[in-house]
Amino acid sequence: MLRLEILVSLVLLGLCSGDERVIGGTEAQPNSWPWQVSLQGYAGYWYHTCGGTLILKRWVLTAAHCVDSAGVSYRVVLGDHNIYADDKTEQYIFVQNIIIHEGWTGDLAVGNDIALLYLANDAVLNQYVQFGVLPNADATLPNNYPCYVTGWGYTRSGGTVNPTLQQAPIKVVAFEVCSEPAWWGHYVTRNMVCAGGDGIVAGCQGDSGGPLNCQRDGVFEVHGATSFVAAAGCDTYMKPTVWTRVSSYITWINNKIGLHQTGL
C-alpha cells in the first residue's frame, strides 16, 4: 500500500489521495525518462510506493520518507512504463542497502528528506535505462524556470496510482516566493525547491522520491526528489509541490557512495 502521512498542513508524497496520474499531466512517451525508477515494497505482493532516480549502476536516489519504515523489503524497477503490465523493457533489482540522511527526523519543515539505495546488482544501461544527470553543487533555478514532474502518482487528490508513467510541465517557484507566508512560509528551507502552485499541475501520492527534471544547456538534470504537498489537496493553489533540492546534497551523495565503495 502507499504511504500517507499528514503533519499540520503537509502530506508526504509516499502516497495525496479516481483516474490517476501526475495532476494536470499526460501519459509520457514510453521510456522517455529512462532514469525514472518505480520503487516497490513487498506485502505478500509487490506494490508501487514511490519514484526514484537511477544515478549510477547500483545507486538510486529517492526520498527518505519512502524507505524509513522498518522491516519492509524493497526492489526497484528500471525501464518501466506500465507498472501493471510486462513492457519487455523492465529490469527488476532488489535493494541491498538503504542510506537515509542523518538529518532526516520525519519533520518535513526540517527537511533532509533524501536517501540513497544501493542495489544488489548492476543496472544494465540501454535505450530504456539511463542515468539521471545531477546538477552542480548548490545550483539553483530562477523563478518560473520550466521543468517536468514525472511519476505514477495520483492524478487528483483522493485517487489511486496510475498504471502508466505520467509527465507534466511545471514551473519553479523561487525560495523568495515560496517562503512567503501566503505560500509555504517557514515550512520550506533553501534545501528545498518548490514548483507548481497554480492549482492545476502538481505531484501527488505515489510520486514521492521521483525526479524534478529541468533542462539546462540541452541536458535534463534532476533538481529534486519529490517530498510533500498540502494536505488540503495536492493541487492546492499557492501550495506548490516541494522537492528536496538535490544540489544541496551533492557532497553528501558523493561522500556516502565513496564510503560505501571503500567498505567504511
Description of the structure:
The protein has two helices and 15 strands. By secondary structure, the chain is mostly beta strands. The protein folds into two domains: 34-119, Trypsin-like serine proteases (Thrombin, subunit H); 145-247, Trypsin-like serine proteases (Thrombin, subunit H). It has a six-stranded antiparallel β-barrel. Strands 4-5-6-9-8-7 form a six-stranded antiparallel β-barrel. Strand 5 (46-56) and strand 6 form a beta hairpin. The longest helix has 12 residues, at 250-261. The chain is globular. The termini are far apart. GO terms for molecular function: metal ion binding; serine-type endopeptidase activity. Residues 22-258 form the Peptidase S1 domain. One of its GO terms (biological process) is proteolysis. This is pancreatic elastase.
